[in-house]
Design a protein that fits this description.
mainly alpha
Length: 69
């Protein structure tokens, strides 16, 4: 799964603009919903690979932690 993200991990993109907390929260929410949809809608799937091009924990570790609880 390759959801929309801030793209902050792309070369030349980090630091160009300030971190937009509102946009980041919205993207993370969408990412959680997409992952939950993938887990619920495809019962035969054994693994889901989640990948973003973001350096922000809100779009990576925190999305995964949210799904654990």
């Amino acid at each position: 799964m390759d959801p929309s993200c801030t793209g902050s991990g792309l070369v030349g993109r980090y630091g160009e603009t300030d971190k937009d907390a509102t946009r980041l929260k919205k993207l993370a929410s969408i990412q959680v919903r997409l992952l939950m949809h993938a887990m619920r809608s495809f019962p035969n799937v054994k693994k889901i690979v989640y990948s973003t091009c973001s350096i922000y924990p809100e779009e990576n570790e925190e999305v995964n932690i949210y799904l654990l609880y």
